[in-house]
Amino acid sequence: MRKQLMTLAAVTFAAAAPLVLASAGTAAAAENVINWSAQQGDATASGTRWTEKSASGVTWLVAKGELVNASPGCVSMKISETHDFLSKTTTVATQCGPGTSPVGYRAPRRQLMSYIDLYLCEGDQDTRDCKRAKETR
């Protein structure tokens, strides 16, 4: 799966443009918000992702949304964070059985070429069957 995620990250990089954001006073400002959604079996997930620049100059990679499971099994939402072609994957939400879980992620952007991809996966720990979220601007 790591090899697949690294390959997908490289493909995503070729298609993704950096998001440019402005700061508004002391609050962080988000622009160019991208909607995302994914379906895996009886589970769905959707939300938004963006970058934001704080007044202190730190740029953040942010994703928020909701994971909904209608089946008795477990599903997980994973985020693959890529910096200069090196990626790491983090589980940000898991829902076992019918119900809803919030999806939330916030991390500092470490390199100029930093971005995130979202994946909806079957299972909670052994998550081999993952579907990449579709994005729309």
The helix/strand series, from N terminus to C terminus, equals HEEEEEEEEE
Task: State the distance separating the first and last CA atoms.
Answer: 27 Å
Helix amount: 10-25%
> How many individual β-strands?
9
Structural class, by secondary structure, is mainly beta
- Enumerate the strands of the largest sheet in spatial order, edge to edge or round the barrel: 6-3-2-1-9
Task: Name the beta content range.
Answer: over 45%
How many DSSP helices?
1
Low-pLDDT residue spans: 1-27
Instruction: State the major sheet.
Output: 5 strands, antiparallel
Basic shape: elongated
Please, what is the average pLDDT?
A: 78
Rg computed from alpha carbons, rounded to a whole number of angstroms: 15 Å
